[in-house]
Design goal:
By secondary structure, the protein is mainly alpha-helical. The chain contains one helix and no strands.
């Protein structure tokens, strides 16, 4: 009689263990999907970061060009100012 009780307890314990394993395995597939999604998002973030770095370099180049252009405009305006003042002196 005691053997049947021990066998029943062991069968019940194995059944509970199997249920726990099935539950964990079911969650693993969800975790695997989440892991794939995170890896995809990380790859997208890396691409965006590379694009941002390229944009930053382009912006720095444009800023340098704008500074050079402003300097040239200042030189041209100064030259025109000198020419205008010479012409006004010649007229007087």
């Amino acid at each position: 009689m005691v053997t049947w009780i021990v066998v029943a307890v062991l069968v019940l314990a194995v059944a509970i263990l199997v249920a726990a394993v099935v539950s964990v395995l079911g969650r693993l597939s969800g975790l695997e999907r989440a892991l794939r999604r995170l890896a995809r998002r990380q790859a997208e973030a890396m691409k965006l970061q590379e694009g941002a770095a390229k944009l930053e370099q382009t912006l720095a180049g444009l800023q340098d060009r704008a500074e050079v252009t402003q300097e040239r405009v200042a030189v041209i305006q100064a030259a025109r100012g000198e020419a205008d003042s010479k012409q006004s002196l010649q007229r007087a």
